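#onboarding

Welcome to the new folks! Below is a worked example of what a typical request in this channel looks like: someone posts a single protein sequence, and someone else replies with the predicted structure as tokens. Don't worry about understanding the tokens yet, we'll cover that in week two.

Example request:
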Amino acid sequence: MASPHDLRFDCGRICLDLVATTGDPPAERLAGPEHLTTWLVGAGVVPHSGPLEGVDSRWVARFRALRELLRRVLHDELRGRAGDADLALLNGIAEAAAPPAVRAVRATDGTLARALPAPPDCAGLLAVVARDAVGLLTDAVARGRLRQCEGESCSLLYLDTSRGRRRRWCSSEVCGNRERVARHRRRTAGR
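Example response:
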């Protein structure tokens, strides 16, 4: 089982970071309520100081279901076209509840910080992620930057914001390094 320290927040969008909570080889990074809470805060879905109550195994199951729906829709869009039934499910989640209202409040040091007036419900937080996915899919510029990692055993998706749009891997340190090591081994084995 993966730990919350294995969570990634570098894919470029909240919805892509949720999809990255599992991967190849399969590793479950939303193993329980504490992992989901860590992800919600780390991804910026809720503020660090926000009240978050009631996160339980039902929340985890609902976020995992959204993650699998997003994985299908996003990968299908990269290959050509997502199915209408999956898009209807995604739109339904996006419309099911209002995302939690975020307010600007003064922190103890005088700076402004994000805060929630009350603990959010699961449907509202799911709507935040689903609306982020709808925004990605319907923004031609952002959609044009969506890439799948070229790592041999990686199917993660990310937004390529690199200069020249030549980024090939979800992470240069992980998948990029594996590719460089494999290329080096192939060269040295051929000698």
